[in-house]
Structure prediction request, 278 residues.
Amino acid sequence: MQALKQVINFYLNSSIHVALAASALVWVTGLEFNLDWDFNLFGFVFFATISGYNFVKFFGVAKFHHRSLARWLRVIQMFSLLAFLAMCFFVISLKFEALILTGILGVITFFYAIPVMVPKHYFFDDHKNLRQIGGLKVYLIALIWTVVTVFLPLVNEEVPIGFDAMITGFQRFCFVLVLMLPFEIRDLNYDSIKLATIPQKIGIKNTKIIGVLLLMLFVLLNYFKDTLSIKVIISTVSISVLTGVFLLVSKKDQSKYHSAFWVESLPIVWWLIFILLG
Prediction:
């Protein structure tokens, strides 16, 4: 039992689970827009997610304490290095326009973790990274996930970014934003008040109300598309209901795996619903 728990913790802490979630959303986009299967794109997104998330999570821990790191963290560091090398292998197969897009995302990810000089009127008076700028974190993450899981696959397949793609992008932004809310609620016990997270600013109850409204918007936006299939409608309604349930039962003292595993699994569930619908 202890060995199984260690495997699950490694699976979560090494960002494999979140990488599968990101890959699942790329696949959802491919199914909706009838894109060809691209193994290199999926490989890139999977390993880039692991590399980026682990860089952000562990940079502050590891940069000055490499020799004294816990054994599990050294293992994750080695795993992250291998993931980075795999990402480099897959990235060379992307189209030029997709490479430009990934380069921009790479710069954003770098400054999301690395401290930079931030003017005092942004709540801080010292070197801070982007995620420490009050109120920015959740929106920046939603934007990055939207670009990676919607626009990157389309650009790489040289599909014009038309009206339907823009609507899908806005839907994905709303969906990922709602997925972040259970994490924001969980972290109320730990986040600095200066981060100005959504629950800190409006409270848990209002955060859940906003989340439900965003999920309703997520579904309703389908009807503004020029091309719409019954599979898209059923899958978005289904995943909205599931996501809403997980949001509504979220609390500050939630179980360890509520957000880290179950909420993070929802993109995979969305993909499975799409697949089951044929």
